[in-house]
TrEMBL record:
Annotated residues for binding of substrate: 51, 56
Name of the protein this chain belongs to: 5-formyltetrahydrofolate cyclo-ligase
EC number: 6.3.3.2
One of the GO BP terms on file: tetrahydrofolate interconversion
Enzyme class, first EC level, given as a word: ligase
Regions that span the bilayer: none
Amino acid sequence: MRLEKRNLRNEMLLKRKKIKKDLREKKSQQIFKNLVNLDEVNAAKRIMVYVDFQEEVQTRQFIEYLWSKNIDVVIPVCKPKNRQLNPSLLYSFDELEPGTFGVLEPKKEAIRYVDLDTIDIIIVPGLAFDRHGGRIGYGAGYYDRFFERTPNAQVIGIAYDEQLVMKIPMEDHDKRIPLIITDKEFIQAKYFL
């Protein structure tokens, strides 16, 4: 199964990379519109969201929207030693610098860790999703471990429509995503229905 996952990862990285920049921006804009129309998002007090990296769905406009609504923005800080994500409040993009894997994280002096139980929603990236809530990320399991530590938070995956596949190979430790939002649709994972 590991080989199958690695092959799917490589295939999806290439597929995502082939989406032209202007089209990625347009698709990200539609995903943003879909997200901000969710009642759960507007009712939340604290949302964890990644800062987009490379060709991922862009999140900066969403982060600015959350700030404008006085919703706390929390971003993941990678801890490679134990392969964990620790959430930290973010007040400004000026607080960011490249961290683990080149992903933007708060500068050391701007890290403000939060209690995991205070996170209402987690917006999660992925290389691919399926309609049963299957998700494949970059392969280190950071988010799967994080979901175990945040059982009360609602998890929403965001992806370009091109990132939907028929079936993600799932292992016992892989966590399913109940709601996936693309530029074309809202997907309530069949696994949870």
